[in-house]
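Side project, low priority. Logging it here so it doesn't get lost.
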Amino acid sequence: MKPVGFHQHDHETCKSGGITSAVDYCETRGLQFTPVRRRTLEILLHEHRAMGAYDLLEVLGREGFGSQPPVVYRALEFLVRHGFAHKIERLNAFVGCVHPGADHAPAFLICRQCDAVAETRARPAMALLGDLAGEAGFRVERAVIEAEGLCPNCQEPANPGPESRGKDPK
């Protein structure tokens, strides 16, 4: 599973695949994929970044879905519970899942400068955490792995040339 969010990919396929997975999942399990749930997921998948509940509520309100906080919080709770979105604890925000329907343990890479978020796999880290917890007699029931740093777009070049340091290259 490659991290999605910092690299180019087919964004339209990503968005349509996320919605199709949610529709199929809900139909198979007899769940209601209401218009507000669908639109909330569409917004998250379209933006491809972490969004706060009130940012989502603003968009939903403009589109006639209501402007009261329970509207968005109920939709987000449904999307997170069924694996179509993830909560980014550090940002108190949400992202659309880039691997819906896949059995996966995600880890999130968060750019401290632009707040871009990439989802990647956390299985190796989760296994190590489980081993360490087991040694302490502890059983992990829930873990969220979030790493903060700089995304490729916000990093300065490793060895900038003189022109990027404001000096004449002569």
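Brief comment: The chain has five helices and five strands.
Revisit when time allows.
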